[in-house]
Structures are given as structure tokens and as C-alpha cells.
Amino acid sequence: MINKTYTFIDNKIKLMENIPKYNSKQELILPEYGRNIQNLVKYAVTIEDKEERTKCANEIIRVMGTLFPYLRNRADFKHKLWDHLAILSDFKLDIDYPYEVVTKENVNPKPVKVPYSDRKPRYKHYGKNIENFITAATDMDDKEKRERLTELICFYLKKSLIERNKESASDKKVIDDIRLLSKNRLEVNDEASFLSVEEFRKAKLQRGNVFPQKKKKKKKKKK
After folding, report:
1. Distance (Å, rounded) from C-alpha 36 to C-alpha 17?
2. E runs forming strands in 16-137
């Protein structure tokens, strides 16, 4: 019976190899095994008799093993082949596996849900990140570091205001906003001065001219 199965599998592979290959819409589950092996596994799933189905599966494993002879010395080589057989069948091959094979849940685990805060920022033009920075600054024990971070936050607030509406981008607005957002826990000097509109414009121009375009040579007019 086993010899018959060998002959059947080998003949089926030869038959598939002789069929002209066209671009198929069917996606290869494990491309390293090719479409022939995938089709054999698909056929094995359709076999009604479990004993015959298991024999067919063993022959497919034999053929799969011949594709990677250099891996035969690995201790888990056979186990890996049975894992791959289960994957190729989309876990539909109902047989008594000689090993505990991988499950669909292990191959395609559900992504871990990332916690997302529904809390909306007080000022949308500043965003949540700046509020997180303000919270971090208020929690700092080191006074020097807290003052430095507060200064950086103020510059960012001023930059955001300029980008949104340069007419209303004043230092007083920045100071009022950071005091409001920090609940007066961050100290800012009333006379503090931050990025000006002109400084912002110059910095933006400098960034834009890092790779200046070559000027086109003017063609000389023919006399």
C-alpha cells in the first residue's frame, strides 16, 4: 500500500511539473515549497479516509524533506516539516500528527491592543504631546532641568502659534498658556522673550536652502 502511495505522489508531482505554469491568483502560503507541494497538501485535505489521508501526508513530508537535504542533521528538522505541513493546509488537514504542531493562533497571533487615551488636548494646535511634556516638567525635582525644559516648551508653543496665526503669536500668549496648562506649577518670567516671527522666518528659509537649486543659465540671445 505504501509503495502505491509513493508511486501516486511521485506521478502526481511529475504531472504537475509538466503543466504549463501561468501567473496564478492563488497566493503561495510558504513560497519555499512551491506551488506543487501546496497543491498536493490541498489534495490531501480532500481525502475522506483518515488512514489514507495520513499516508498521503507522510509522503508529502518525505518529498518536502528532499527539498532541504542540508537541514536533515538538525534535531528539529522533522518537527519543522510537520509544522509547515499544517500551515500549508491552513490547519485543515485532519490527521494524527507525530508531533505537537504549531496552531493557527501561534502563527497569526492577534495584535496586542495599544492603549489609547480618549482625552482631548485643551488646545488642539499644541496637541497632546506638548501637554505630556508639561506634565513631565512639573514632575521634575531638579530645578535646573525643569527650567530648561520649560524654556524649550515655551519656544515650541511660540513656534506653533506662529505657524497657526503669526498675528496672535505673542510672548504674553505663550506665558499665559503655559501657566494655564501647567496649572501655575511652571514658573515663567513675565518679561521672558521667545522666538520672534522674523527669527522663525529666517530659520525656515535656512532649512529650505540646505540644498539650494542650481540656477539655470540664461541663454544668450542670438544677434
Report:
1. 8
2. none
